[in-house]
Amino acid sequence: MKMTRVLVGAVGVAFMGFGASLLTDVRDPTGVLVWLGGAVALHDALLAPLVLLAGLVLVRGRARGPVRGALLVMGALTVVALPVLLRPGRRANASVLPLDYPRNWLIALAVVATVTALVPAVRALRRRRRSPS
């Protein structure tokens, strides 16, 4: 498990480096900093407390962690999708947003929910394999 965490951490650092390298093209770094600060504030002041509260109120037992994780991922997906979801309708230039974003957002949420639902089943299967018969 430790090696997996190190690998995932290294991939995350690599992605952050790639994102930082893209900032060389930014004409107004102040706008980027304001946007990043707003994202952190939205996450810490609204999204994380709501997820923790929902996990506390709605779920008991071992499933609480996976459900909280899923709610956090779903919340982040929703926050990222909000600009497109809140501006529905035809665009003057069809190539600007050519995909069906509401449908794709719902598919992403369904994938997260499905994976989360599989977590308890996988855990139970592992426990069954470990326990002596």
**How would you characterize the largest beta sheet?**
none
From the helix content, strand content and strand pairing, which structural class follows?
Answer: mainly alpha
The total domain count is 1
Rounded to an integer, what's the Rg over CA atoms?
19 Å
The N- to C-terminal Cα distance equals 26 Å
What's the tally of helices?
4
Helix proportion: over 70%
Poorly predicted spans: none
Order of helices and strands: HHHH
The proportion of strand residues reads: under 5%
Shape: extended
**Total number of strands:** 0
What is the mean pLDDT? 84
Q: How are the SSEs ordered, and which strands pair?
A:
Blueprint: H1 2-22, H2 29-58, H3 64-85, H4 101-130
Helix pairs in contact: 2-3, 3-4
Task: Give a verbal description of the structure.
With 133 residues, the chain is an all-alpha fold. The mean pLDDT is 84. The protein has one domain. The longest helix has 30 residues. The radius of gyration is 19 Å and the shape is extended. Helix 2 crosses helix 3 and helix 3 runs antiparallel to helix 4. The protein is 77% helix and 0% strand.
Quick take:
The protein is built from four helices and no strands.
Keywords:
mainly alpha, 133 residues
